[in-house]
Design a protein that fits this description.
This protein is an alpha+beta fold. Helices cover 24% and strands 29% of the residues. The chain has a seven-stranded mixed beta barrel. Strands 1-2-4-3 form a four-stranded antiparallel beta sheet, covered by helices on one side. A two-stranded antiparallel sheet has the order 8-11. β1 and β2 form a beta hairpin. It comes from Rhizobium rhizogenes NBRC 13257. This is Carboxyltransferase domain-containing protein. InterPro entries: CT_C_D, Cyclophilin-like_dom_sf, PxpB.
């Protein structure tokens, strides 16, 4: 029997999950973020925290203020009245050094795709990506918009450590690592930009709905930006369009 959407499910005694689909889809994600924005602009009393994902919105609430059933009814009404418009969103031009010690899969990936590394880099940097969600690790950005020809399965055996700011490909998604850690994604470069900095306000650079374009740079510019970042200077500002 096919699943019916939208649906609102209880997750324990103080969280609801608003689910719009069971797959990754740009239109579904836009509706999730539109609902998230609407509830931030016009909050429902009792909601304490929300987290947008690819296709759902997690809503944490205080049951002493609002019961789960009443909140579900309120969320259903917001969904029915929801309007998804092309509102202003932030766009970042993220500098990337392709290849090197962090971009360890660039050469092999180019061979797999029967193209040169230059062709792969140009293709990867030719499109606009969208931040579908932040998750897995603090500030980790899951990106949609990867060209079809670059879709590549993850590694069968994850590597034990990949550096922060590594630029990855996993399946039909792209990513930017936020902290060092294990990963089965394939990595083609790095950015000097830090997505997560606990001493920065806010600590996360990106949020769901942001747009990204990758800008290839050389080692000299990367070293200059690394020095600026280490000194606490801002090296990336968003554009609003």
């Amino acid at each position: 029997m096919a699943e019916m959407f939208p649906r609102i499910r209880a997750c324990g005694d103080s969280m609801l999950s608003v689910e719009l689909a069971d797959h990754i889809d740009d239109g579904v994600n836009r509706r999730i973020i539109a609902l998230f924005d609407e509830l931030n602009r016009n909050p429902v009393a009792g909601i304490e925290e929300m987290a947008p994902t690819y296709r759902s919105l997690s809503v944490i609430y205080d049951p002493a203020i609002i019961r789960g059933g009443a909140l579900a009814d309120a969320l259903q009404k917001r969904l029915q009245a929801l309007s998804v418009t092309d509102t202003a969103s932030r766009c970042f031009s993220v500098p990337v050094v392709y290849g090197g010690a962090v971009g360890i899969d660039l050469d092999e990936l180019a061979r797999m795709k029967d193209m040169t590394t230059v062709e792969l880099v140009n293709l990867h940097a030719s499109v606009e990506y969208r931040v579908y969600m932040i998750g897995f690790a603090p500030g980790f950005a899951y990106l949609g918009g990867l060209p079809d020809v670059l879709h590549t399965p993850r590694l069968a055996a994850p590597r034990q450590r990949i550096e922060a700011s590594a630029i990855g490909i996993g399946g039909k998604q792209a990513s930017i690592n936020s902290v060092p850690g294990p990963s089965g994604w394939r990595f083609i470069g790095r950015t000097p930009v830090r997505l997560f900095d606990p001493h920065r306000t806010p600590p996360f650079l990106l949020k769901a709905g942001d747009r990204i374009r990758f800008r290839p740079i050389g080692e000299a510019e990367a070293a200059r930006l690394d020095t600026m970042v280490a000194a606490g200077q801002t090296v990336l500002e968003p554009e609003v369009a």
